[in-house]
Amino acid sequence: MGLDDFSPDLDWVDSWWNSANAVKEGVSEKYKEWSKKAGAWIKRTRKDEKKAKKYDFLLANFLVQIILDKKYDSVSESIFNLTNAWYPSNYILGVLSLIYIDISNKIREFSKKPQIVFDYEIKTKKQEFNDDDLDIEIKNRINYWVEDIVDSLTIEYSSIQTEKLKILFKKNDPLLLDFTKLVFNFFLKEINISINDTKLENILIFILSEIEKGIDKLEIENI
Predict the structure, then answer these.
(1) Using CA atoms, how far apart are residues 99 and 212, in angstroms rounded to an integer?
(2) Domain, as residue range, for 40
(3) In 3D, which of 132, 71, 64 has the Cα closest to residue 99?
(4) Which of 87, 186, 198, 217 could bond 82 through an S-S bridge, CB–CB 3.0 to 4.6 Å?
(5) What is the pLDDT of residues 45-66, one digit of tens each?
(6) Is 9 contained in some domain?
(7) Beta strands of the chain (E only): which ranges?
(8) Where are the alpha helices (DSSP H) in 155-194?
(9) Residue 19 counted as domain residue
(10) Distance in angstroms (rounded) separating the CA atoms of residues 117 and 101
């Protein structure tokens, strides 16, 4: 049994502490203060871990579906690279939501926003991505995607996961841009649209900067 398996009964801790309070003789004030702080820390940590695990379980569930579908083979390795680098699961889910609409709708369920219906008629002839003449369905889908990423990072967020992500953004970790580019390019290929690498990178650098602004505003609980 390791430390990860240890899960104290907080009701028992509270009961024990109430009983201990009744026996004032021989119990130092310093020890009592330490016990209170330790109990509060355990409660905060478990609450934060519960938020993180909510997205971990969600990611695990969708990963099984994505891996079994050969259509997503080109992004699967990149997903594993992020999980191996301990990227927060809510960030991975947010980015993947562009190409897996069930993820998007699950996030929107959390954020209490309308479910997405992507009703774009794919053209037979390959189109070039054009900011000034972009089909409204595609434009809306991209805007909703950015919303979903921000919501996945800011609704019931884990302080531990958010702190990790802030560090990755400050380091300008290359996986941030590489993974987002891969997913965005996958989305465009699926609807028969091409984009040159420079334009693709510029769009995603801007999107990532907006995401970073969103998480920078979050309060991080000192755990």
Answers:
(1) 21
(2) 26-216
(3) 71
(4) 87
(5) 455 566 667 777 788 888 888 8
(6) no
(7) 127-128, 193-194
(8) 159-170, 174-190
(9) no
(10) 9
